[in-house]
């Protein structure tokens, strides 16, 4: 029933095509995580050995097959130990997909989202001002991820997003300026929050703790993190572990617009009081 076509002696079924496609996606995503790291060489080594094992088995070379078979037996445990960081990031990547998130389904069906207004103007204007004055800032913007756990590490605020409040939070002498502010459901949820630091060894040494915390947060969640560097006044945005540096206010606005839904963009187009 599931028969598709055959190439010579090979019968290809639909399920085989699907199988190959899924394995391809898995290998590609894992490759993306380990690319540029030492783990990539280990990964290629593992793959080569596995393909050799398959060839040896198919050609019925008994001795080599049993030696490689022993290695493959412990290979899975060895891989878990060797790739523990990468596997953790890979599982987080799967787990943070919007499809597994109730907030995503709520927004898809319009539940609880009718009153959500993202004041993008205020975010962009205050970011521009903080960049001009080299005021350090770290803002987590979450559409789908529940932020309760992170908000609890700081001080709960729960107020409308406004330029004045953002500037007050990150003002150098403010008791709230340290750590990250969390924006959730169109509101400022908390400030002075502690974010998880990334363990990625590829992060350049020139990026300090603020940037490392932003990257760490984006690895475990589907949030967008906005950074203003105290040292250089540069604006950066971090998403899915990738950092885009040296953004202009226009580019910042565009990336915020892309992240927030079309539906919310329309709402944002209505002028809002700061
Ligand atoms: N785990 C964390 N969670 C949230 N904020 C953090 C965390 N670690 C550091 N920070 C923030 O980063 C600030 C220190 O930034 P640091 O100078 O080390 O980083 P940086 O990436 O070089 O940034 P900048 O370019 O602004 O100097 C701290 O004062 C604190 O506000």
Report on this model:
The chain has 274 residues and is of the alpha+beta class. It folds into two domains: 3-95, no CATH class; 115-271, DNA integrity scanning protein, DisA, N-terminal domain (YojJ-like (1). It is 50% helix and 17% strand. It has eleven helices and nine strands. It has helices at 14-34, 38-58, 62-82, 84-95, 102-108, 120-132, 148-151, 163-170, 209-220, 249-259, 262-269, and strands at 3-7, 10-13, 137-142, 155-160, 180-184, 187-193, 224-228, 235-239, 242-244. A seven-stranded mixed beta sheet has the order 4-6-5-3-7-8-9, with helices on both faces. Helix 1 packs across helix 4 (84-95), helix 6 (120-132) runs parallel beside helix 8 (163-170) and helix 6 (120-132) packs antiparallel against helix 10 (249-259). The protein is elongated and about 75 Å long. Adenosine-5'-triphosphate is lined by residues 136, 138, 178-180, 194-195, 197, 207-211, 213, 229-231. The site of adenosine-5'-triphosphate has 17 residues, from helix 9. Catalyzes the condensation of 2 ATP molecules into cyclic di-AMP (c-di-AMP), a second messenger used to regulate differing processes in different bacteria. It holds the Pfam family CdaA_N. Probably a homodimer. Keywords: ATP-binding, Cell inner membrane, Cell membrane, Membrane, Nucleotide-binding, Nucleotidyltransferase, Transferase, Transmembrane, Transmembrane helix.
């Amino acid at each position: 029933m599931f028969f598709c076509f055959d190439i010579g002696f090979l019968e290809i079924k639909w399920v085989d095509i699907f199988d190959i496609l899924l394995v391809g996606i898995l290998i590609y995503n894992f490759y993306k995580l380990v690319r540029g790291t030492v783990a990539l060489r280990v990964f290629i080594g593992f793959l080569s050995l596995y393909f050799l094992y398959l060839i040896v088995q198919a050609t019925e070379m008994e001795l080599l097959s049993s030696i490689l078979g022993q290695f493959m037996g412990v290979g899975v445990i060895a891989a878990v130990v060797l790739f523990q960081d990468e596997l953790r990031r890979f599982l987080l990547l799967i787990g943070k997909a919007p499809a597994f998130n109730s907030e995503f389904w709520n927004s898809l069906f319009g539940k609880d989202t009718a009153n959500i207004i993202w004041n993008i103007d205020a975010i962009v204007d205050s970011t521009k001002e903080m960049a001009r004055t080299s005021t350090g800032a770290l803002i987590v913007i979450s559409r789908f991820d529940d932020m309760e756990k992170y908000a609890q590490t700081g001080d709960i605020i729960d107020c409308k997003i406004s330029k004045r409040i953002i500037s007050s939070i990150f003002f150098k002498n403010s008791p709230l300026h340290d750590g990250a502010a969390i924006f959730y459901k169109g509101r400022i949820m908390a400030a002075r929050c502690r974010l998880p630091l990334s363990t990625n060894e590829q992060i350049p040494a020139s990026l300090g703790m603020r940037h490392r915390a932003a990257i760490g947060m984006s690895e475990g969640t589907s949030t967008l993190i906005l950074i203003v560097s105290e040292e250089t006044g540069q604006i950066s945005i971090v998403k899915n572990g990738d950092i885009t540096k040296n953004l202009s206010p226009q580019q910042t606005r565009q990336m915020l617009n892309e992240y927030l839904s079309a539906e919310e963009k329309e709402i944002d187009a209505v002028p809002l009081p700061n």
